[in-house]
Amino acid sequence: MSAITLLQLRSWNENCYRVTACCCPGFGATYVNPCHPYGARAREEQTPAMLALNPLGELPVLKDGEQVLYGTQAILAHLARVYDPSGTWLPLDPAIFGGVMQWTLFSAAPLGCAVTGPAGGAVLADRVIFEVLKASSRPAFRIMDDHMTLRQMDGCEWFAGAGPTIADLALFPSFALSRDYGIDHDEFPALRRWIKRFRTVAGFLDHAGHT
């Protein structure tokens, strides 16, 4: 098994959190051993050395042996496919796989505003920024809550499949941390139940790095 290096921001960032949680040994399945995450100084991702790894100038970046990957969703899929032989986090069953990828990509597009807002240097003490983030992320959370309401009515506890997948991992940080800019989780009861359940997953890693 090749050594993996994770290049991520030292400061809080949802995309880095997603990949860090996925790399954590014991997170459901042991994906990576060893894993060496380290921080990057402010705007270091814009240096020529970093742009050679990711021309978009964004973190995280994953180095797995000779392979270099950027894009959170691509990294999650790679880690799950290569380092989870059980197929738990990225099921190959066609009936489940499509749903997993659909919701994983949802975290990058419709839900992207909830990620790029705080990560883009917004001062969360600014009431205007709070209101912009709430207005832009609430429709995505409503779509997620409606989906999970129907899933829970059918006895399903996760976004796709019978257990947690990279879809749940990709979606979790944006909603779990949305209280930071004033989202009332009581508005989304199905999501509130879902994140409570997600925190019980073996090896769960919170955004501060605690299990």
UniProtKB/TrEMBL annotation:
<dbReference type="InterPro" id="IPR036249">
    <property type="entry name" value="Thioredoxin-like_sf"/>
</dbReference>
<feature type="domain" description="GST C-terminal">
    <location>
        <begin position="93"/>
        <end position="211"/>
    </location>
</feature>
<feature type="domain" description="GST N-terminal">
    <location>
        <begin position="1"/>
        <end position="87"/>
    </location>
</feature>
<dbReference type="InterPro" id="IPR036282">
    <property type="entry name" value="Glutathione-S-Trfase_C_sf"/>
</dbReference>
<dbReference type="GO" id="GO:0016740">
    <property type="term" value="F:transferase activity"/>
</dbReference>
<dbReference type="Pfam" id="PF13410">
    <property type="entry name" value="GST_C_2"/>
</dbReference>
<keyword id="KW-0808">Transferase</keyword>
<dbReference type="Pfam" id="PF13417">
    <property type="entry name" value="GST_N_3"/>
</dbReference>
<dbReference type="InterPro" id="IPR040079">
    <property type="entry name" value="Glutathione_S-Trfase"/>
</dbReference>
<dbReference type="InterPro" id="IPR004045">
    <property type="entry name" value="Glutathione_S-Trfase_N"/>
</dbReference>
<protein>
    <submittedName>
        <fullName>Putative glutathione S-transferase</fullName>
    </submittedName>
</protein>
<dbReference type="InterPro" id="IPR010987">
    <property type="entry name" value="Glutathione-S-Trfase_C-like"/>
</dbReference>
